[in-house]
Design a protein that fits this description.
globular; mainly alpha; 434 Repressor (Amino-terminal Domain); about 110 residues; single chain; 7 helices; about 55% helix
Length: about 110
């Protein structure tokens, strides 16, 4: 007999990840989110229910599809800890503004004039 999972069966890490992802999805439908993650809508629905935690690969594909930081998403999904990714920040104070804008444009697919 198949056991149906209910809210009380939710994985706290999966619930936290679903909350994290909702902050990026706004009014997107589950189908639109699934398309960005290159997966099916039913699986995304299970992610959002907190009953299933996506695989690390799915977390990365979803983060990229939502223009989110994949490493941050892996932390939110419980695959990495903050301590594991606590790297020193680069000092960008000497980086030319044009170089910074070009990098932002590259990451957001916006043309720079």
């Amino acid at each position: 007999m198949t056991k149906h999972r209910h809210a009380e069966d939710a994985d706290p890490v999966a619930v936290a990840f679903a909350t994290y992802i909702r902050s990026f999805t706004g009014d997107l439908t589950l189908a639109a989110i699934a398309a960005r993650a290159h997966t099916d809508t039913a699986l995304v629905s299970r992610w959002f229910s907190g009953l299933v935690r996506p695989s690390a690969g799915s977390v990365i594909r979803l983060a990229i599809g939502l223009n989110a930081n994949p490493v941050e998403a892996l932390v939110a999904a419980g695959y990495l800890t903050v301590a594991e990714v606590d790297l020193p920040l680069m000092d960008l104070s000497s980086t030319p503004t044009a170089a910074l804008l070009a990098e932002v444009a590259r990451r957001t697919d916006v043309a720079v004039a």
